[in-house]
Amino acid sequence: MTVFAVNALFLVPGQVGGTETYLRRTLGAMPGLLKADERIVVFANAENAAVLASDLAGAPCVEIVPTAVRAASRPRRLLCENLRLPRALRRTGASVVWNPGNAAMLRAPCPQVTTIHDMQYRRFPEDFSPAALLAMRLLVPAAVRRSAIVLAVSEFSKGEILRFAPDTAEDAIAVTPEAADPVFAAGDSEGKRRARAAGIVGDAPFLLVVSNSYPHKSLETAVEAFGLLAGAFPHRLVVLGRPRRGEPALRAAIAALPDPSRVIRLEHAALEDLAALYCAADALAFPSRYEGFGLPVLEAMSAGLPVVAARAGSVPEVGGDAALYAPPGDVAAFAGALRRVLSDRALASAMARRGRERAKAFSWEKTAAITLSALRRVAAGAKAR
To answer: With contact defined as beta carbons under 8 Å apart, do 204 and 236 qualify?
Structure first.
């Protein structure tokens, strides 16, 4: 029997952004791809055990092992991860352990495979508190060294790992792209979704920003670009995402607008509400200066929403020719690209078609298959030794 262990102790639902989607959707696609002699054991924390159990209900080849640790306390989580989890892995006879959250155990009784989503802490250290930055500087390089295979979520992220961990062999990094949840494809429910969005943000047309307000997300660029357009278009700007260390810059940009009331600030939306917003918006503005993947770009394209993004990080890799791009931080260029989308209905329709087609090339089943392939390769190597 081959046992794939999953270290889900890092996950606090609703708090860790795209890494939550990555773990839950990849894990959800795995059971249907398992062989008869394979099983999955997921080590959960106090915050996520019920969520993961619900996600994986009805999968007999998957076991959820709850722990009492609360991951909201990073020190307690790290202690559990490095003291209790290795013993638990030994008891379950784990063949290999997958760490989906940028960190690996210092010592494990079996080989480790770790997902490193990006090198944000190296490129944008201002995104982190001093304690969090110190933890990342210690944990990420250690995870790369201690992992038999590293998983990256894009070719861009793979290049970043090789840049900042130059001793890593290129063939020891596998790329596992993310995907849009099928719920975002509008289909026959478009009318209902538009009505749902109107109940959230009103009947006026709007542009959408989906991002937590980290400094590198550069949300003020979208707000300032909106300010250049506001006199010519009736739109509002909906900014959806949790406040982070870039929130003061975002708030200042909103306050500087001639009419700040045209900006709607939302901190959270349920999946169905997010799908409704994608469906009803006229464009997604995505000004981020750095992305390991850039999942909102793919989600928007899946919903048929034109995307205007900064040409930075992995975003051109994800958006391809289905999006319009502006240089990072260039407010005038960003406003110009948005103006093109809002003024040219033929262009917007063509972008929507290209986006939907491009989004179909990504799926969580593919992500799960690549992940399982890496886990099998490492488990087979350990068994051979």
So the answer is: yes
Residue 35 reports pLDDT greater than 90: yes
- For residue 384, is it within any domain? no
* CA–CA separation, 148 and 150 (whole Å): 7
Regarding whether 260 and 161 lie in a shared domain, the answer is no
Q: Measuring CA to CA, how many Å separate 25 from each of 47, 122, 259, 260, 277?
A: 18, 27, 40, 37, 21
Residue 20's φ and ψ, nearest 5 degrees, are: -65, -50
Q: What is the helix (H) or strand (E) element at residue 266, kind and residue range? A: strand 263-266
Q: Tell me the residue range of the domain where 262 lies.
A: 182-359
Residue 18 lies in a domain: yes
pLDDT band at residue 188 under the 50/70/90 scheme? low
> 382 near 349, Cβ under 8 Å?
no
Which residues make beta-bridge pairs with 44? 66
Looking only at the bridges linking them, the beta strands covering 38-44 and 112-115 are unpaired
* Number of domain units in the chain: 2
Same domain, 251 and 156: no
